[in-house]
Write a structure and sequence with these properties.
The chain is of the alpha+beta class. It has 13 helices and 20 strands. A hairpin with a 2-residue loop joins strand 1 and strand 2. The radius of gyration is 27 Å and the shape is elongated. It starts with a strand and ends with a strand.
């Protein structure tokens, strides 16, 4: 156990060795997450594999001895040992095929195990058990009935829902005129703030990613049904910039004094959103294609929780500069993302809907992604390589930020005031019919 200020971290890595050594810890973690899957089959297969490996090693030793006998024996005496060599080699091949089959089954089961929750995460079974930590600002007061952003966007000719549907189907939109400019202004504002004030390095990664990058980030095999795939090329459309940013350092050993690495990336994200609740699908809240500015950090393990608090602050800064009321919510164990050990959400107030909506999710994945993607660092020259910790945050979801601006800055006549920090990017202070 290592201490980092108010929080500490335990080096949990869901390797087979860890599961075999601490089965009750893993079972307890799954119970905390309300995850019904068990580890009995993993333990059974691991024990079976160990027995087969022991037999295989014994046969290899026997094969070596037989070959030495053959080399020392006269020609006439080699027939019988040669028969035994062939039989032993055949037995080894059969055992290796069985071991390979078990390895495939084990790999699938291991890749479907979620991260272990940090001990500070509240136990819970659903949204009611999430904990509100604090609020910033006050909800805007209106002397009229505020409209939802989808109504405002259509009245101001910013958002063309019918055009998006004609082009690609439901839950795709076309941004037009000032709507397209506002989207671009938000992206530029977020990138400028994070690079100039928070010290992030800007990255524009490919929008197509390999399967290995998705496995490393924890998206596959768990969320295969949520992804758009290009079968012929064995590539997937990026569901979040976190995926290519994990993949960028896959199978790498970072030299001493490389960490921390802080990246900010704007990408268009693509998600099938299969099975999403119908109440969340109107307007810009749950699209199949959307823009997002992502913050991603690779950290020394002992510094990851102080970095986590800092990361929350970086995402909050965007909302504060835009003067949007929001709250900070610590997710309970049942609501943790698959790869996360601890997650905090920022939820912005939507006056037109009279509810809070998630606009950023900030997670510390500890060594979970690094182990899957094989991202390590050397603490000192010649030292043993260790796994990094990875953290991510939306900084912010651009479409949802636009929606919050439209609803929070609307006027009685249907116009929308542009937040002060965006006016240099927009070249205007008002969106009017």
């Amino acid at each position: 156990m290592f201490s980092t200020g108010r929080l500490c971290y335990t080096v949990h890595m869901l390797s087979l060795d860890f599961i075999r050594q601490y089965p009750e810890k893993v079972r307890a973690a799954l119970r905390r997450r309300c995850d019904p899957q068990g580890i009995d089959e993993i333990l059974r297969l691991a024990e079976q594999r160990r027995g087969l490996t022991t037999r295989c090693d014994s046969l290899y030793s026997e094969l070596k001895q037989l070959r030495e006998q053959i080399r020392a024996a006269p020609g006439a005496a080699r027939a019988e040992p040669n028969k035994r060599v062939k039989a032993t080699a055949r037995d080894i091949r059969q055992l290796e095929l069985q071991i390979s089959d078990i390895d495939t089954r084990l790999q699938f089961l291991l890749l479907n195990l979620p991260n272990i929750p940090h001990e500070s995460v509240y136990d819970g079974k659903g949204d009611a058990d999430d904990h509100e930590l604090r609020r910033w600002g006050e909800p805007v007061s209106f002397h009229f009935e505020p409209r939802a952003h989808w109504d405002l966007g259509q009245r101001l000719q910013l958002i063309d829902f019918e055009g998006g549907s004609r082009i690609a189907g439901s839950r795709f939109v076309v941004l037009k005129g000032a709507g397209a400019r506002l989207e671009r202004a938000l992206i530029s504002f977020m990138l400028d703030l994070h690079t100039r004030e928070h010290g992030y390095t800007e990255v524009i990664p490919p929008f197509l990613v390999k399967r290995s990058a998705l496995v490393g980030a924890g998206q596959l095999p768990k969320f295969e049904d949520q992804l758009y795939s290009c079968v012929e090329d064995e590539l997937y459309l990026n569901p979040t910039a976190e995926v290519p940013l994990v993949g960028m350092h896959g199978d790498a050993i970072l030299p001493p004094d490389t960490l921390p690495l802080r990246y900010v990336a704007w990408t268009t994200a693509f998600r099938r959103e299969a099975g999403s609740a119908s109440s969340q699908t109107r307007g810009l809240l749950r699209l199949h294609q959307f823009n997002k500015v992502e913050l991603f950090q690779l950290m020394l393990p002992q510094e990851s929780y102080s970095a986590f608090d800092e990361l929350v602050g970086h995402a909050e800064t965007i909302l504060r500069r835009l003067e949007l009321h929001y709250r900070v919510v610590a997710l309970c164990t049942a609501n943790l993302p698959f790869a996360s050990a601890k997650t905090v959400d920022l939820e912005v107030w939507m006056p037109g809907q009279q509810r809070y909506v998630e606009i950023s999710s900030i997670s510390n994945c500890e060594a979970f992604q690094a182990r899957r993607a094989n991202i390590r660092y050397r603490p000192a020259p010649g030292s043993r390589a260790e796994y990094v910790h990875t953290l991510n945050a939306s900084g912010l979801a651009v479409g949802r930020t636009m929606a919050a601006i439209l609803e929070s800055y609307q006027q009685a006549d249907g116009s929308v005031v542009i937040p002060k920090v965006l006016r240099p990017y927009m070249g205007s202070s008002l969106l009017s019919p």
